[in-house]
Amino acid sequence: MLDVIDLNIEFHDHITPETVVYDFDLHLEKGEIVGIVGESGSGKSMSALAIAGLLSRKHMKKRGQIIFDGVDLLTCSRGVLRKYQGNDICMVFQEPMTSLNPVKRIGWQVGESLRIHTSLTEEQIREKVIKTLADVELDDPEGIYDKYPHELSGGMRQRVMIAAAIICEPKILIADEPTTALDVTVQAQILKLLKRINKTRGTAILFISHDLGVVRSLCERVLVMYRGRIVESGSTGEVFEHPREEYTKRLISAIPKMEKLKDGQ
Questions:
Q1: Among the residues of 111-259, which ranges form H helices?
Q2: Average pLDDT of span 131-158
Q3: pTM score > 0.85 for this model?
């Protein structure tokens, strides 16, 4: 469904050009959940933003191909790209409070993609927004429709962002560190929600994270990035149980492990 071939991203906003992603390749099938892991600055979020078409076309040079629905999203016109953004390919970010507009009500924001990509009436949009808020397991969706972002908890705001991302029933959902700012209990709820969306809607998910434990519980395949390059890839079980690269081994060894207390210690 999605093929990223030889993607390279180079910034030109400094005196010396800086390459942040080298030779990135990704094949994503319908209904797959693929994780991209790596430390901060490894290029994982930059690669995801390129796939979502959210990188500026100024001050940077991008080479390669991002093929979706037979169209190269890297070189197509802005008008063509906008047909896919928020419709077929959507993104959920780490901190919803910076993504949501503080002066717009939740209902209006969740329904924005429908106004852009469909010809539904305002009443039809309202009905679909309320249904989608219920689909992401928010209590009292009618009440939340009229609230502002600051009136919701962090977990509720993240569910709102997921609702906004799935309301047009996209083929690909890109989740960039969507649980990092949440406590452990809410994090588990959001991961369960993403799994359900994947299973019931057949939505492919590209999950970006530095948390290997989360990736292991959610993803079928994983790409490991280091300094802008993919250093290892494969099934999640294969990569976690039999890592080949030294960097991957170090990442996995750093995952906190629950040890049984012995001798009262």
A1: 112-117, 122-135, 141-145, 154-166, 184-201, 212-218, 236-241, 246-253
A2: 96
A3: yes
